[in-house]
Design goal:
Chain lengths: 295, 295
C-alpha cells in the first residue's frame, strides 16, 4: 500500500502542476475569481478521479499528455461541484480538505462564480487540440463529461440529495442518487482512456464494471467516515449526514452491514480487472485503498 | 420595425421549440431541477443572442439546423447567467422577465443547480454530431463559447461588477467590464455562422466589428432603461443600478451623453454591415431596435 500511496501522490502532483498552467491569471479586477478557482482546484486533495483517468488510460496505452489534460478537466469539475455543494444554500459547510470552504475564504458570490468558471474551464481544456489530435474524440469526451455532470448526472444527484423528506428512501433510491451524484464522474474518469485510444469493447465494459462497483464502495466508505472518522483525517465536518437528515447507506444498512457491502463491492470491482492480470495491480491497490482509507 | 419584430419573435419561437426538445425530462426526484431549467430557459425573453446567431449565420449560408442548435446553446448559457446573477449573494433580484426569479419561484439550491445544469447542457448540445458534421467545427464552437463565458469573459465581467468600491471607475473600466460581462457572448453569437460555414476572413472581421459596437450600445441602452424605463416594460426591477452602487455608462456620461454614445455606436455597427448590402437589412433593423427598445 506504501507504493500505491506514492503513485497516487505522484499523480496528484502532476495534475496540480498541469492545473496550475491551465488555470487563468489576470492583473485586472477579475483576479479575485481566478484566485478562488486556484484556491479550490490547487488545494490539498487525493485526486482520486484524475488518478483513475491516468491509470486506466495507461492500461490502454493512451497518450500521457492527453490523459493529464483530461485528469485536470476532471479535477476542475470535481472542484466546482465541491464549491457549489458547500454553499450555505446547499450543505452549508465551512471546512473542506482541512481549510475554509471557498465561500468562507472569499464570499458567496465569488464562490458561485469560481464554480461556474471551473466548470467552463473543464470544457475549454477538453476541446483544445492539445487534448487529442482527433476532434471527434474530443467531442466524445465532452459529450460523456457533460452527461456525467449535468441534470441527469452529478447535478441531478445533488438535487435528489437536497430533498426535504427522505424518510421513505430505500437502498435502491440511495443507490440511484449516489450513482448520479458521485458515480457518474468516477465512471467518466475510467472512460477517458478508452475514448482516447483504440481499445477493445471488452476493455470499456471491464472498466465500466470496475467504476460502477468502486464508485458505490467509495460512497459507502464516505458514509462510514462521516460516522466513524475524525474531522482531522477527512478534512471536513463529520457526523453531519445524520444531523442534516441525509439518507445514507450506513443509515439503512447499519455500520456493520455497510462495511460488508463495501467489501463485497471492492472484491467485485477487482474481479472486473482479471483480464488485465498483473498490469492492473495499481488499480487493484486503488480499490483496496478505498476500503481502508481514513480520509 | 414591425417586420423586424415579427422576425425576432419568429426566431424566438423556433429557439423555444428547439430548447423544449433539448431540455431533459425525468420522472425521478431530480425532476425539480429540470423544471427549474425549463422555467428559466423557456420563459419569456427577446432571445437577442439566438436571433443574432441565426441571422448572421444565414448571411453566410450556414445550415439552419446547426444554427438553431447553437442558438439554443446560447440561450442556455444566457439563462444560466441570469439565474446565478439574480441570486441573493449576487444582485439579489426577485423579478426577471416579468416573473419571479428562479430562486424565488423554487429555492436557492435549486437555482444554483439549474444554472449549473444549463451551462453543462449548452456544451452537450454543441458537442453533439447533430450540431455539425465536422467535429473540428464543434470543438471550435466549444472553445469560443467557453472563452466567452468563463473567467476571462462573462464570469470575469460579473466578478468585476461585484466589486465593492467603484468610485474611481472611469469609462475605460466600465467598457472593459461590459465587454466581458455581456459583450463576449454577443460576439460569440455572431461568430457561430462563420465557424459553421466556409466564409471569408473579411466576414468574420465585419461581424466582429458589428458585435463589438452593438454589444456596447446594448449595454448603454440597458443602463438607460434602468433609469428611464418602467418595470412593466423591462420585466425586471429598475432604478437598481444607482441603489446598488453599480458603475454605469449613464452614471459617468449622463443620460444625454449616454444616449448620444449609443447612437454613435449603432451607426458604427451598421457601417460594418455595408459589404453585405441589402442582404443585411434585418441586422441593421436589429441595431436600430437596440436603440429604440423599451424593454
Amino acid at each position: 500500500m506504501a507504493n500505491f500511496i506514492a503513485v497516487l501522490e505522484e499523480a496528484a502532483d502532476r495534475v496540480t502542476v498541469a492545473l496550475d498552467a491551465l488555470l487563468p491569471r489576470s492583473d485586472g479586477p477579475e483576479t479575485r475569481v481566478m484566485e478562488a478557482m486556484r484556491y479550490a482546484a490547487l488545494g490539498p486533495g487525493k485526486r482520486i478521479r484524475p488518478f483513475l483517468a491516468i491509470e486506466c488510460g495507461r492500461l490502454v496505452n493512451a497518450e500521457e499528455r492527453s490523459l493529464l489534460r483530461c485528469a485536470a478537466a476532471l479535477e476542475c469539475v470535481h472542484a466546482y461541484s465541491l464549491i457549489h455543494d458547500d454553499l450555505p444554500c446547499m450543505d452549508d459547510d465551512d471546512v473542506r480538505r482541512g481549510r475554509a470552504t471557498v465561500h468562507r475564504e472569499y464570499d458567496e458570490a465569488t464562490a458561485v462564480l469560481a464554480g461556474d468558471a471551473l466548470l467552463t474551464l473543464a470544457f475549454e481544456i477538453l476541446a483544445h487540440p492539445d487534448t487529442h489530435g482527433s476532434a471527434a474524440r474530443r467531442c466524445e469526451l465532452i459529450t460523456r463529461m457533460s452527461a456525467a455532470s449535468g441534470a441527469r448526472g452529478m447535478v441531478g444527484g445533488q438535487m435528489i440529495d437536497m430533498a426535504d423528506d427522505k424518510s421513505d428512501w430505500d437502498i435502491a433510491t440511495i443507490t440511484r442518487m449516489q450513482r448520479m451524484k458521485t458515480g457518474a464522474l468516477i465512471s467518466f474518469a475510467t472512460e477517458v482512456g478508452p475514448i482516447l485510444s483504440d481499445c477493445d469493447a471488452f476493455v470499456r465494459r471491464a472498466f465500466e464494471g470496475f467504476a460502477h462497483d468502486l464508485g458505490l464502495a467509495f460512497q459507502i466508505t464516505d458514509d462510514l467516515l462521516d460516522v466513524e472518522g475524525s474531522s482531522q483525517d477527512t478534512g471536513k465536518r463529520t457526523r453531519k449526514d445524520d444531523s442534516q437528515g441525509k439518507a445514507t447507506f450506513v443509515g439503512i444498512l447499519g455500520v456493520e452491514g455497510a462495511r460488508n457491502q463495501a467489501e463485497r463491492l471492492i472484491a467485485q470491482a477487482k474481479d472486473h480487472l482479471d483480464p488485465f492480470g498483473e498490469r492492473a495491480k495499481i488499480l487493484r491497490d486503488a480499490a483496496d485503498y478505498v476500503l481502508t482509507r481514513r480520509g
